[in-house]
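Morning!

This is the sequence you dropped in the shared folder:
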Amino acid sequence: MNLKKLIFGSTESGSARGNAYQDSIQAWLPIKNIIGGVIVTKDSRFVKILEVLPVNIYLKSATDRQAIIENFAAYLKIAPDNLQLEVRTLPADTVAYVERMKARLVEEDNERCREMIEDNIREIGEGVANDALRHRFFLVFQYEERMKAKQPTVQAIVRRLNEEADTARRYLDACELEVLEPGFADDFALNLLYEIINKNTGRRVKLPEGVFDMTTAVHGIYEE
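The structure's back. Tokens below.
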């Protein structure tokens, strides 16, 4: 099961659509809300998605490789039962790369280094990397009964899932894997869902800053 099927695979019955217009996106989309970086589905599942930056284990020494394997095995022993590892393969984001190089160019004092950066910007800008691919890696899990939130409330379940996320970060850090911790977890989840639904448009049109607050206000979802 891939990431899209995990989130969007549920089939909503007519009674579960509430006041959504027939054949509208709201009626089809099985997402009820995003709270504290946790996706809440209409069939009452709570799903947490973590993005992980990979490490090339084959560049490590034999001792380091063994340590990484042992630490990852230790995490799997205490990880959620239905943990999924997902990979998204996408065209390389050359625009973002060029912007990063331009920012470094401004800060670079060495003239030779500046020439190298400018040459790199020209090559990428001319489309040398148009056929390149990039990969995004995710850990996906959902709330399970054995996690035992302190209270049977939405907020308590969200806190419990975020505790599981913190546990994953600690264990994977020992594996030399960085789990991204976005400043605005709700925006991260919303952007990811947007990119999954709109594969082509999502590459060209980025969601504006603060879009989560705008969409929640429009659709009548507010913080309690």
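Headline: Residues 3-92+132-218 form one domain.

More detail when I'm at my desk.
O.
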